[in-house]
Amino acid sequence: MRTALAIAFSALAAAIVAVAACSSTPVLTTGSTFSAPYSIAVTWGPDRDLLFIANASGDDLTAMSICTQVTDATSPTGFRSGSTGLPVANTCQPREDQELLPGPIRVFPGSITAGDRPSRLAGARLLKLNSDGTSSSFGAVLVAGLAVTAAGRDPLIRVIDANNILAASQRTPPTPVHPPFDVALPAPAVDVVASEVPGQRVRAFVVSQAPAGAAILTAFDVSAQDSGPVLVPAARCTLDLVATRLALVPGTDDLLPNGVPAHVYVADGSPDAVPGGKGDGAVEVSVAAMPPYDPATFTACPAVRRLPASDPTDVIRVARPLRSIALSPSFFQAKSRDSDPNPITPIPARGGAILLGVTLGSSALCGLPGVPTCGEGSIVIVQTNPAGTPRVAPAPPVDFFAVPAGAQAMPPLHALSGAREITFLRPIPGCPNGANACVDITTGLSTRLTAFQIQLGAVASTDDGGTVLINVIDRRFVDDLRDERINNAPDPNAALPPALSSATFFPSPPIGQEPPQLLVPNVIPPPAGDPFSTLTGLLHPCPDINTPACLNKGATTALRWAVIWHGVMPGLESVAGTLHRDTDTGPVRLELVARDLSPWITSPRLALQAGDVVHIRAIANPAALCSQLAGIPATQDLLIKAVEPHALVLEPAGRVLAPPFSTIPAFSFPASCGAVGVAVDVRTGSTTGGEWLVTAGTDVRGRVNQGSLFVSKAQRFDNPIDVPAPRPQLDIEMAFVLFGALPTLSGQQFVFTTARGTQPTTIRETNVVPQGPSGDVFAYQSGHFSGSGIIAPNLLFTSLTGNNALVRSSPANIGSQSALVVYR
């Protein structure tokens, strides 16, 4: 069932729930529509396209009819396919268009049993040669990742007859469902991909891998027989990596003379990655060089080119493993409008010139400033450069196509939530509106929508259930604020910097005692009486950004910040240890046998060191064991004299310092107390490292002392502003100084929030509650929709894995009637 609402970015749908049967043979039954849908693929039938969705937590597929016919007087049937241009019968009825195939009980969608937990799909568009010499459209669906037996994922690839499934759903006349065609693999399949170019034989690729083995890449030829589609292995070789995804170049730009794809691309998700090597980006495998298939032979792929997702110009080059990849379709690098009286010579850009990748998390990125979730879910743009060296796209405003030597690479883009799968939008055929008008987009707020065109677009599904739009050549997200127009002029809100709330200090000091102040640098020149300028005497830390607190669009994120006096170091809350002293003049040691402090000692942000403090939370029977400890106030800090991997040496004498540094009182712990079990917090207190702890969200940003300027840097996540020169990848996100009176209690803190100042255009089922995570995102194009209710050749299908739904949307018509439909 589907439901559509004419609202900008959301829809609500009613649900139909039924029960699916389980079998290893395809059976068309009335079933539950979606069960954790993930992978999406398209093929064709005799008179329409067929979209298949894999239910990753079930045992079945769901299919949808998409009508393709376009009126054509030169066609023998009077119609041709809007997808392929071939003659087609006008038998796909409007009531069937974009509707799920029915089951035997026809008010319910059909459930196509495929095997337990299908994870990846590919569609093959076959041409079957008929006895009269004509060709007919024949569709095949390749299913990977199945668990046919109880042992887990099985080493096989399964092929399902799409034409037969369509005929069975129509029941005119009743059609028995064909059994699947299975081919054994040497290891469980990870992914499958097939050429989108129709033919009597279509080349497909499967990558399979055992948990501890090499990736095995197998090429197959898919063809149509009277009994259904069959799969014949053609070539095989191995890759020393952990394969995550496969991809081919869309269209016909990367084909061998025999029509077979010239290259297949494998996303590399290997752990312990090496910059520029294994685990970094993807590899391009020459199909012509793959050894012919021999069931007993496993040789390494002889012609492999690496496409790194990191770049040698990075300040710190860190390998980026990828979870998803997509190759660009052909588009125009330069072209005049068709109506231009003085046209320029068009410059086409070859399909496959650009690779988009979604990153996996990397341990090497954990702990670096501004890298959310250790870099997972970011989007990299790689120029494949077949005639030279591939490289990460340059940072704006360097020209995308004319990159000077040594140009700075752009950092990965990161949406509001981590990306999961990615694909390119298809440009309008012929690009009639010119070089910057090949893909139609609608953006803006729901009350002020703006239609415009971009040169090349892409979309990514995100973990919060969204589908985010990407302006690839401009190397940024499409943005509701930046790209919106009001009376044909830019939205004035687009120029606003990220927002900063006022800082709240709590717990409040006693009445009559002044609290400290948190001061931020202001714009230049500062307003009269600006506290930062008049009180601190510090130089402005970011005159090139020139915003309050150095907030930086594209670097500052939406976060809750806390600046905590003698803040507890994360992970060292309520640590159990033993306090003892061998002699009354010897050192007081806090033994932490079960805890290794090395990560806190070596951390550049935490830097546990002498001068930091411990705060006693609990003492085992203090009155009986040590009366001196029983007399220590619950608010007192104990000074650390030295740090060791499994112990902290304390200083009973404390310290006495003048402001802006704190005084730590002395404490008494004689040797007669013996060994006392305690639970402590370890807190910042060193005058060298900084007595204030700065956190943003769940991450530590660093430490700072009273009166010292704190500047936090983060990795740039977008390029939402036009700048005269590339901004650094590691850019300022926030700056402030603590000033005035010192706090009186450990744990007193300032709290404030920041906002991004950007609003990436995102398609969602609902704006009220994020629905996620998302699965696959698929861009579909057909001339059938031009001039109808959906006026652009891009339909997006996004599977909402966490919400058991499928979203169909039209990026060019966001906000219009039927531009967004939700299937359940």
Topology:
Layout: E1 2-4, E2 28-30, E3 37-44, E4 48-55, E5 60-67, E6 69-71, E7 79-81, E8 99-100, E9 110-113, E10 120-129, E11 135-144, E12 156-161, H1 162-170, E13 181-184, E14 189-194, E15 201-208, E16 215-225, E17 228-239, E18 243-247, E19 263-268, E20 282-286, E21 304-307, E22 322-327, E23 331-334, E24 347-349, E25 354-359, E26 379-383, E27 391-392, E28 419-424, E29 439-445, E30 448-454, E31 457-462, E32 467-471, E33 476-477, E34 485-486, E35 489-490, E36 504-506, E37 516-519, H2 531-536, E38 559-565, E39 575-581, E40 588-591, H3 598-602, E41 613-619, H4 622-625, H5 627-630, E42 637-644, E43 647-650, E44 676-683, E45 692-696, E46 699-704, E47 709-715, E48 730-740, E49 749-754, E50 762-763, E51 777-780, E52 795-800, E53 805-809, E54 820-823
Antiparallel strand pairs: 1-54, 2-9, 3-4, 4-5, 5-8, 5-9, 6-7, 10-11, 11-12, 12-13, 14-15, 15-16, 16-17, 18-19, 19-20, 20-21, 22-25, 23-24, 25-26, 26-27, 28-31, 29-30, 31-32, 32-33, 32-50, 34-35, 36-49, 37-48, 38-45, 38-49, 39-40, 39-44, 40-43, 41-42, 41-44, 42-43, 45-46, 47-48, 51-52, 52-53, ...
Structural summary, described in words:
The protein has 824 residues and is mostly beta strands. The protein is built from 5 helices and 54 strands. The strands form 14 sheets. Strands 2, 3, 4, 5, 8 and 9 form a 6-stranded antiparallel sheet that branches. A 6-stranded antiparallel β-barrel has the order 39-40-43-42-41-44. A hairpin with a 3-residue loop joins strand 3 and strand 4. It starts with a strand and ends with a strand. The N terminus is likely disordered.
